[in-house]
Amino acid sequence: MGAASMTAEPQGRAVLSSLSAPVSRRAFLAGAAAVAVSGQILSRTAYPELYAPAFLHLAACAAAKGHVHTYAIAGDRCEFFGSTSVDSFAAYATHPTLPVLYVARDCSQWEHLPRGVIETYQVERSAHPLRLVMQTPMALSATGPRALAVSSCGRYLLVSASTGRAWNAFVLDIVGIPASVAIARKETGTVLESQTISLPAPHAVAFSPSGPYAVGTDPSSERMTLLQPSPDGITILSRCHTPFGVAELFPVWTRDGRYLVAADARAASLSLYAIRSALRDRDGLDIYVLSTVHTETPIKALLAHATEASVFTSRREREGSRLEFWRIRGDQLAVERDTWIPDNVLAFAHHAGALWLASEDRLIRMRYQDLRAISAMNVAQSLQGMRAIVTQSYESNLI
Amino acid sequence: MDTLVDRKDPRYEALVQGHNLRFPESAAVAPARIVICATSAQVKQALQDAIHDGIRPTVRSGGHCYENFTANNPGGVLLDLSLLNAEGRDPATGEYCVRPGAALGDIYQALYKQSGVTLPGGTCYSVGAGGHISGGGYGVLSRLYGLTSDWVSAVDILTVDSLGRVTERHIDTKNDPDLFRACRGAGAAGFGVITAFYFQQLPLAPREVIQVDLHFPWESTSEEQFVSLLMTYGDYWATRGSEPDTWGLFAILDIGARSNGRLGMYIQFCQPDGTVRDVSILREFLARFDKFRPSSRLRGMDGRSAVKQTAQHPRVELGRMCWLAAATGDRSGSTQERAKYKSAYMKRNFVPAETQTIYRFYSGNSIASLSSVVAVDSYGGAVNRRGLAEGTAIAQRASIMKLQWQCYWTDPAMDAQHLRELDAFYTELYSGTHVDADHQGTPWGDAYEGCYMNYPDADMLRYAYWPELYYGQSGLYPFLQKVKRTYDPNNVFHHAMSIRPL
Prior knowledge:
The structure holds two protein chains of two kinds.
Chain A: E1 5-8, E2 14-17, H1 32-46, E3 54-62, E4 65-74, E5 77-87, E6 89-94, E7 100-105, E8 117-123, E9 130-137, E10 145-150, E11 156-161, E12 166-171, E13 183-186, E14 205-207, E15 214-218, E16 223-230, E17 233-241, E18 252-253, E19 259-263, E20 269-277, E21 285-294, E22 299-304, E23 310-317, E24 320-329, E25 332-341, E26 347-351, E27 354-358, E28 362-367, E29 373-378, E30 386-393
Antiparallel strand pairs in A: 1-2, 2-5, 3-4, 3-30, 4-5, 6-7, 7-8, 8-9, 10-11, 11-12, 12-13, 14-15, 15-16, 16-17, 18-19, 19-20, 20-21, 22-23, 23-24, 24-25, 26-27, 27-28, 28-29
Chain B: E1 3-6, H1 12-16, E2 33-36, H2 40-53, E3 57-60, E4 77-80, E5 87-89, E6 96-98, H3 104-115, H4 129-134, H5 142-145, H6 148-151, E7 154-160, E8 166-171, H7 177-183, E9 193-199, E10 208-215, H8 223-238, E11 249-255, E12 263-269, H9 280-287, E13 295-298, E14 307-309, E15 320-322, H10 323-328, E16 338-346, H11 352-363, H12 367-370, E17 372-378, H13 388-391, E18 401-409, H14 415-429, H15 466-471, H16 476-487
Parallel strand pairs in B: 2-4, 3-4
Antiparallel strand pairs in B: 1-2, 5-6, 6-9, 7-8, 7-9, 10-12, 10-13, 10-15, 11-12, 11-17, 13-14, 16-18, 17-18
Helix pairs in contact in B: 8-11
């Protein structure tokens, strides 16, 4: 079983725990068990929700067939619930307060019309953890969804339509169900003539933690856009050219909503963006580049710290990954801590003061404070084409 | 200045709907605003504004679109071109110009009174030129003169380039020839906004015509007689009707529910020279139907002294009337109802399986049978002249009949049942050994030429090959996709059945 052992709970569900068997697969994890014990104690004070249960969803996609593997996590325990098959999986996002998961399917046609579709799942603690409750078509010609995000207020779902060159927004009702009709905004003709490289192709979206506006990236036209959905439409608050392009990796907001960090496309670098009130419009916002810091290799995973204005990154280095913890100092990003692990880290999530790292075949739990692994477990499910992991608290809405 | 009508405007509710009251399907999917344009410059500005605002423009001329291509536009803008409606001849160039908002009846009046010419277009007076001509434009003179789009010599169109700039183009066989070809039959399929059609020449309007209505005794018609009636009708168009001296003869076999007694035929005739001095062809045609015991009704010269005759061999001369009265007297099509339409082109006569299916459906009492008709239009003639397919975007150039299903009702709660039953009827009609095995449910194969884009039917979208049903199998659709990529790279102009980007 490698780094993890498997036992059977009374209800017959497999439970994975990293700590009951010697870890041997990676040398660096040799001391993980001891760290984990002390880590729990240490973390309990700093993160009172340490043992708060949460779902961890892990999405993998290969040959247009996607799977969302759902686990329950609490402390260093990780229990596999079940897998859900999703055709043409593109991206997913969790509702901030409800046990609801949204999935964008990367399709060029839905019900015979050229448009993508958003699936809404109720998340349940069962062997079939994702129960499909709604399929909502995107606007006509909004094809090729790539990303979606839910506003922190839980009112709006924003989706990119890459091949449809549009943004779509849905108003969410109180139980998280999207309105049946999408609010659409086309990006037609928004590229300046002087910077025409190719047609717009909206890609990533990320809502600010500070308000109902989001940043959308467009690697094709190399820019970021601040978008504000409302029932009447999607307003463009500001646009910003990205000096080194913007990678397909999703940007992240810092916890305070003042900064945005994004990996660059045409350089191994990380750019820091700031949000400020627009000079010309008291209600408006501007986004602009503060600084860019170069890295030895391109950033492969990016995650904002849960409580501080800082981010975690991962990039390939030798046969493993270099993890770095960046803090914003002035208008610069600076590495405060880093470590190397012998895994190819594909995505990050966090929960209860710890990082959850997904590599090609296992999940690693790591402490915020010192980037040391607490535990690791092999994942039985195929992670080929791993896309992303997200965590979702279910403490307040047990089903 | 154009006129902006938003949701708060008291005119909004009246203007947002076209003639098919199924659309918009709800307030949520209706356009946020309607811009009524009376000049090309206003259209250009309104279109540019829509691009700038990132909202979808849809375009309406007369409001007769059969599907939800214009009124279903959530949060978007509906460009209403109904006041861009001039028509006439430019004395300097000799060209005739028709603007998209002009109603067919008004066009016939203007062209006839100014120059004695006409378009071989449709019969509904209030249908707008924009969608009608760009999608083909077919009517009672089409067997004699071809499709309206066959006569188009140039088009003014607004396109949107990759940078979102609205560009005015005057296109013809020399300027943007591919786009010009696309606009002669597929012009409503998503390339731009047409603001004018030009015709270097147009056919002379007939001097006079004869109109005859036949009514068959549905109640006493057996299945065998019904089959025979349809096959007699189809046989004429497959044989004698292909000869040029008959091209002035046009007919619609109108089949509705037996319980409604709706089984009839409308006929309009003139000789190729536009007169009715010799009615032998009409008599020959009518004689074929004597055995079905029709009563006939002639529409007299003064437009009101209809003569009902129950005797065979009616005195057809009594139905002589001037062409303009015939062309503009039918004000049908102006009512608003909930509706569904379908179509099919036929290259050969009916086979018994088809007629039996029609007989069963209209002998029954399903909701859709009671509220629908299938109109079997004569086709072919000048439409099928060689060489037209290559210069236009109408692929169907070998058919002898065109079928149109029309279903009308008023209660929104009955939408689903009407749609379901009509679709099932259509699917059954085109299922069986008479249809290609891989294309069951659709008019596909040696006997058929698919469907007519001006009678769009979103049910066809369930077939992956729907573009070939509407645009044929000879490479027209891929050609249109290339045109789309060139002239509408951002897919600004789209609807459920527009050309899909490559």
